[in-house]
Amino acid sequence: VQPVEESGGGSVQAGGSLSVSCVVSRDFNRDYHMAWFRQVSGKQREGVAAIARGGMTIYADSVQGRFTISKDGPKNRAVLRMTNLKPEDTGRYYCAARDPGYGWHSDDWSKLQYYESWGQGTQVTVSS
User: Fold this and answer.
1) Around 3, how many Cα atoms within 13 Å sit in the side-chain half-sphere?
2) CA atoms within 13 A on the CB side of 127
3) Residues with Cβ < 8 Å from 70, sequence gap 6 or more?
4) What is the pLDDT of residue 72?
5) Tens digits of residue pLDDT in 83-101
């Protein structure tokens, strides 16, 4: 388990843009598999997007074409850029990481138990 730190988020009106970023551990060269999840009070945490070691990306259908996950520079840092935000995108966004030594299976990307390291979350609020 590694420390995970998120930043960004905030409040925006529908149609606007926000970014959230995440850093896992202090090993800038370790190419973690990383993902973003979100959760609304009373509902299950759901996968939003993931980026595997090497750069392959996966998105939930609800955000496809609007959100982009990438690694900018350090391999242990992932950024989720969100555009054309909708009120239903509101929630607490959590970053998750999986050590690259464990491999990657695309079918499992949105399962909570697939990741061993989690951040505390950052709030994203989209008003109509």
Assistant:
1) 4
2) 4
3) 51, 57, 78, 79, 81
4) 79
5) 999 999 999 999 999 999 9
